[in-house]
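<purpose> Linking amino acid order to shape
<body> The protein record starts here
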Amino acid sequence: MAPKDLLREQVKKYIDDADDKTVKMVYAMLEAEHSYDFWDELPARVKGSLDEAIKQADEGQLISHDDVMKKYDKWLSK
């Protein structure tokens, strides 16, 4: 049996023995994962902006949070 299949069998055993609260939590988690991906809801322009931001970050073109906070600290202290 493949490791994936063993894992599925073990999870099924845990669920069979779990209390109702645990079963409901697992169900909600699986249902949320299965039914919703926020990425699909985003407009194309937002997806494009995020893709560009990820590319820039991957290329090291970013500013640390600390550096930004130092630069704009004067605005926050008013």
Observations:
- The radius of gyration is 22 Å.
- DSSP finds five helices and no strands in the chain.
- The CA atoms of residues 23 and 29 lie 10 Å apart.
